[in-house]
Predict the 3D structure of the following.
Amino acid sequence: MATLPRVPHALVRGWFESAAPGISPTSTASAALSARSSASALQSIAGSGFEVQFDPAKVSIFETASTVCVCVGTPRFERAALAQLGASASPAAACQALYAERGPTFAAGLRGAFAVVVVDRGRNAVVLAADRFSVNGLCYSVRNGRIAFSDRADCVPLEQTPEVDPQALFDYLYFHAVPAPRTVFRGVERLRAGHTCDVVDGRARVVRHWQPSFNEQDRRPIEELKREFRALIEEAVRGEAGGRRTGCFLSGGTDSSTVAGMLGRITGRPAPTFAIGFDAEGYDEMAYARIAARHFQTEHHEHYITREELADAIPKVAAWYDQPFGNSSAVPAFYCAKLGCDAGLDKMLAGDGGDELFGGNSRYALQRVYAAYSLIPAVLRRGLVEPMLLGLPFLKSIPLLRKAVSYVNQARLQMPDRLETYNLLLRLGVSEVLTPELLGATDPNGPRNAQRAVWDETNARTLVNQMLAYDWKYTLADNDLPKVCGTTALAGIAVGFPMLSDDLVDFSLRLEPALKLKGLKLRYFFKEALRGFLPEEIIAKRKHGFGLPFGVWLTGHAGLQALVRASFESLRARGIVRPEFLVELLDKRVREHAGYYGEMVWLLMILEQWLAARAPGFALR
C-alpha cells in the first residue's frame, strides 16, 4: 500500500487490511511498528497490512506487540488505576489497558470527550469508539476486507477518489447538515455518538456502548437537587478549564452566562468572555452579553460583524468542513473563536447542551400543547372536532378558526413527524426545489425513516425526555457540536463543553421531567437553581442564540449578492436544484421575506461553496 498523502487537517487517519485466511496477521508486522515519518505534520506508524498517521500535538498513541491504540480528546476513566495511568503515561495507554481487559466493549468504561481507534492484529480487527455526543468523531469505510478511517470524512484514505452521495445532498437540504451515520461520500460512514464499530475479518458490527436511561421517578427535595446541580456545574467548568488560559463564548443566554460566572469563581480572576453582535434589528443580543459581563465582572471582548467580513468568511468556513454544513451561526462562532485566539487564549468554553439536557428549547413547550389534543376522547376527535374543522374548507378564511384548523392538522401527526411541520425544504416543496435527476437518485422518505428510528430507540416514558434524547443526536451531535468544534479548529483554539459533562448528563437523566418543563415554562429547574447567581434579566430573557441576519443583509449588499449569484450560477450546472427555483428564490421570494427565504439561499450557497472546494467536478447531468 502506498504511503498516505499529507492531510494537514486530519488528526488521525489510517487503514488496515484483514489477513487472508490461514495466514497469521502478526507474523511480519512487529518489525515495522516503530517506523515513523516526519515528512509532514502527521507522524506515521506502519506495519504489514496497516498504517496509522496522527497529529502528535493533539493525539496520544500507544503500541504493544500486536496493537496500536490511538486516542483523540480527553477520556475519563471510571477506575482510579486507569485514570492514574492516563495521567502518568498517556490516555492512549489507559485506553489500551482497558481494551486488553474488555476487548471491543471497552468504551463502556470511558467517559468524557474522546475518539479511540484500536488496530488489533491479534484479532485481525479494528475497533472505533466515539463519546456520548461525538464531540470527537470518527469516519470509516469498509470495503473488500480493508477498513480505512479518519476523524474527517474527507480524509478517510480510500483506494480511489470517493463519490459524492446524492442522498447525502438531499439529507443536507432537509437537515441543514448530513446526520450520522451517512456522510457526503458514498461508502464512507460516520460513527454515531455513543457507538462502537468492531470490524473483524473485514466485517463491521456497530453497537451502542452508551444508552441513555431515564429515571423519571427521582423525587428528592428540590433544594437538595439545586445544591447538587450547582456543584456539578462548578466541577464541570473546573475540569474543562484545567491549567490553561481559558475564556468563554458569551451570548448572554443562561448557559454561556453560567459558564462565564463559574469560570470567574473557580479561577478567582475575571473570566475572559467574547461576544459577537450584528447591526441589524432583531438579531443583536449584545445587551444581554454586557449584562452578564458586568454582573460577573468579566474581561469582556466584543465585535460587531460587518457585511464585508461575512462575505469574506463564507467561502473559508464552508470549505473548512469535511462535508456540507449549513448552520448559519458557524460564521459568527468562527469570529468569536478568533477573538479568543487573538487574545492569547488556549481554550474557549461553550455553553452548548444546557437546553437539550434541561428543557430549554421552545419546541418542547409547543409540542406539549399539541400533545394535549390526544387527551380529547378519540370518539369526539374523530366524530366531531375533525369533521367540523377539517371538512369545511371555508373555515380557513376565518382567522381564529384557521388557527384551530392548523392546530388540529399538526396535532394529528405522530412524533417525530410533527417536528418537521415547518421544515424549510418540505414547505417549499421537494419537487419544486430539486431536479428529477436528484430525486431519481434518492429516497425522499429516507430522513423521515431515520428520524422515526431514532425516536423509537429512546427509552423515555415522557414526551419531554423523548425530545431531549432525540435532540442529543440531531441537534447536538449532528449540528451544534460540529459547528463549534469546526469553527474553533479553524480559528486555531481548543474548545470544551462543560454543560455536557458526564455527571451533568447523568443528573439530567435522573431529574424529574416536570422540573425540566413545568407546564409551559422552559428549563424551570435550571433557572430556579441558578436564581441569585445569574442576573434576573438573563433568567427572564427569551432564547436567541447566534442568529445571523444573512437574508436581511443580502438584499442591500452588493458583495453578498455577487457571492450568491456566482454560487447559484455554478450550482445550476450540477443538476441538483431546479434552475427556475434558483431564479425565483433570489429575484422574488427573498424580496418578499428576506429572513425566511434567506435561509434557503444560505443553504444552497454553502452547498456550492463546499462542492467548489471539495468536489468541483460533481454533477448529476
Observations:
- The chain is about 45% helix and 15% strand.
- Residues 1-8, 20-39 have pLDDT under 50 and may be disordered.
- The CA atoms of residues 311 and 563 lie 7 Å apart.
